[in-house]
Amino acid sequence: MLSHDAHLLYGLEDSAKLESTIDRLTIHLEQLQVSDPMEEAELPKKELFLSKANIIRFVNAFFDNSNHSNCFVYKGSFNVNTASTQLLLAILLLGATCISPEDAATAEKFSERFEYSVFESPEFQRLLYQENHPTPSRENIQLVQAAMLTIVLRPSTGQLETERRIRIQRVPALVSAVRLLNLTQVLNDTVLDGEKANLDEYIRRETLVRIMAWVYLLDAHCVIFSNSPPQFKIAEADFGLPRHDMIFKTTGLPDLNELISNADLQGPPLSLRSVVQRLMDGKPAGIEELLPQVDSLFALFLVLSGK
């Protein structure tokens, strides 16, 4: 049992709505297809895995342990009762892997079926194949975030077949999704002034930038460590660099004012391609010249991986 209410964030304090959310999650898990009846018998009881206490533990574990570096889920506005079922389940499964070996083993038993439920879902297939270009709506972005977290979750199984499927099928599908959403050109040019409307727009655009940056880094990881052909070319890297990690990790306006006063927020956003071009120019800019504008660790990782 939690000793104080500090951990009851993310909508976890609303018991009535949380009960409804648990019902929604349970129904979703029950609808996941199982090809082998023996596999169904070996699965943990969904009611135990999705207990109120476990959801509190898993969500907090995710934001405390898995959403630090290169984060792309904004915890300040995340609410378990309004998040999509797929995104919430991805967070729960990944959070469970941070708690204990027993919880991690339980999450692994659900993870393969969950992977298929995300990437083979009608929603994801529509995102990839619908006639008109999809828009970066809240629903589409949460679906992409769920797919990203699923890719983080699945290689931990250590199964060669799973790793190959992720690398050969899932990563290209994710790359196609962010291309269709036109995230290769997204910039966060919102100027923060302490107003909530501006903060909301800043977070919305920064989330898009960070999603694109993370997928680009994932592609670089596959190229370097798996000898996979690159999905992206530097000519596509017109998206902005992630900005100000601490601002993205704030939980709202009270924490924001001091950060605004201590950070240079007025400079125009830089795209990854522009930074790489300046570094590769005939008279390249010095890294010390660019560092003040590369103002997050996430952005620094991205520049170092520029390909």
Automatic annotation (TrEMBL):
The keyword Zinc applies. Residues 60-254 form the Xylanolytic transcriptional activator regulatory domain. Keywords: Metal-binding, Nucleus, Repeat, Zinc, Zinc-finger. GO terms for cellular component: chromatin; nucleus. InterPro entries: VerF-like, XnlR_reg_dom. The keyword Metal-binding applies. Its main location: nucleus. It comes from the Eukaryota. GO terms for biological process: DNA-templated transcription. It is found in: Nucleus. One of its GO terms (molecular function) is RNA polymerase II cis-regulatory region sequence-specific DNA binding. This is Xylanolytic transcriptional activator regulatory domain-containing protein. It comes from Aspergillus chevalieri. The lineage of its organism: Eukaryota, Fungi, Dikarya, Ascomycota, Pezizomycotina.
